[in-house]
From TrEMBL:
InterPro entries xrefs: Alkb, AlkB-like, AlkB-like_sf, Oxoglu/Fe-dep_dioxygenase_dom
Molecular function GO terms recorded: broad specificity oxidative DNA demethylase activity; ferrous iron binding; methyltransferase activity; oxidative RNA demethylase activity
GO cellular component, one term: cytoplasm
Name under which the protein is recorded: Alpha-ketoglutarate-dependent dioxygenase AlkB
Source organism phylogeny: Bacteria, Pseudomonadati, Pseudomonadota, Alphaproteobacteria, Rhodobacterales
NCBIfam families (UniProt xref): PRK15401.1
Amino acid sequence: MINDLFGGIEPQQTAQEKLAKGAVLLRGLALDKADDLLTAIRHVSSASPFRNMVTPAGHVMSVAMSNCGQAGWVTDRSGYRYDGTDPETGQPWPAMPDSFMAVATEAATKAGYLDFRPDACLINLYEPGARLSLHQDRNERDMANPIVSVSLGLPATFQFGGLKRSDPVQKYALLHGDVAVWGGPSRLCYHGVLTLKEGEHPAVGRMRLNLTFRGAL
Ligand code: MD3
Ligand code: FE
């Protein structure tokens, strides 16, 4: 019976939701990898601790950040850029953990980006009250690379707009284990995260963590 090859047990399949041209949401793709990713985040942040960076306008960001890979995203009074050195430690950023690279390439492949090899991963830590205002990611050299994002911990409301800041935004809930891939025509779309609500996640605690994988160099 061709319709019952798996005896009624379907192979693991994550829902694939198209958000826009080039943007795909893979609900729960990282659920079974979350414990490994959390262990790797602890490892990275023990070498390059989370810190609240300062924007060029002089505002302290409410989101705390760290990075791993060949380059990390940094901001200070002189601007936004990628840097091979962590300015807080004076050392190279920690290497990209294998579990990070594996989830990034799996997601990109599922979304149709077959040879994405990220060289940078920005790790965002949100505590209740933290937010990320509407922005574009435009510090990466080659916009042909997608960005892969992995959400862990408390749920957040994500805003996704158009190519102009004033374009209307759609809102999506991003939950523990959700993975999204942003490329092609959506690569330069404005996006942001609304103020994180109070809560306690069973595996992650009172926070949200987000990994964004980038081809920066
Ligand atoms: C859409 N992070 O670090 S991930 C960022 O949840 C950032 O921490 C958010 O925006 C977070 O820059 C959102 C989802 C995301 C990331 C990059 C995008 C959406 C994107 C690039 C283009 C379009
Ligand atoms: Fe962004």
